């Protein structure tokens, strides 16, 4: 619960800063390479894009939050969808931390393997996914 609250507040603050301060702030936070790679975020399918990129492990979610703030997506739509997208990862991390604390090594292995499977699937399909998001 605390992790979700912290992630939610951090995303909200980053989005609002990006929205009101704009491109000069974002250029300080996001590399030019990241801006070029995700230049499509302001285009169509914004809600779907937010949901998917926040669901996939390994995407630079902080940088994406700043980039999404420059798009036309509304704050509440972004906020809601980004939190839904982040929830599975947060749940996996929570179960993993709980398994370590309780020394439940079987659960920890399950969480690690499930996380690795999701990460590998996202990495394996990254080109197709990026192309689909650009369309």
Descriptive account of the structure:
The chain has 135 residues and is mainly alpha-helical. Helices cover 80% and strands 0% of the residues. The N and C termini lie far apart (36 Å). It has 8 helices and no strands. The longest helix has 27 residues, at 75-101.
Shape: globular
Structural class: mainly alpha
Q: How far apart lie the N and C ends?
A: 36 Å
Number of helices: 8
Compact summary:
The protein is mostly helical. The protein is built from eight helices and no strands. Helix 4 (46-55) runs parallel beside helix 6.
Topology diagram in text:
Elements: H1 2-21, H2 23-29, H3 32-37, H4 46-55, H5 61-69, H6 75-101, H7 105-124, H8 126-134
List keywords for this structure.
135 residues, mainly alpha
């Amino acid at each position: 619960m605390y992790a979700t609250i912290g992630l939610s507040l951090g995303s909200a603050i980053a989005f609002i800063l990006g929205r009101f301060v704009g491109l000069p702030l974002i250029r300080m936070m996001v590399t030019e390479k990241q801006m070029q790679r995700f230049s499509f975020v302001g285009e169509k399918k914004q809600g779907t894009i937010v949901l998917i990129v926040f669901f996939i492990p390994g995407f630079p979610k902080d940088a994406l939050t700043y980039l999404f703030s420059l798009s036309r997506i509304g704050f509440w739509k972004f906020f809601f969808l980004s939190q839904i997208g982040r929830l599975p990862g947060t749940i996996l991390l929570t179960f993993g931390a709980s398994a370590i604390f309780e020394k439940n090594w079987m659960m920890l292995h399950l969480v690690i393997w499930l996380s690795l499977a999701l990460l590998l699937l996202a990495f394996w399909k990254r080109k197709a996914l990026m192309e689909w998001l650009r369309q």
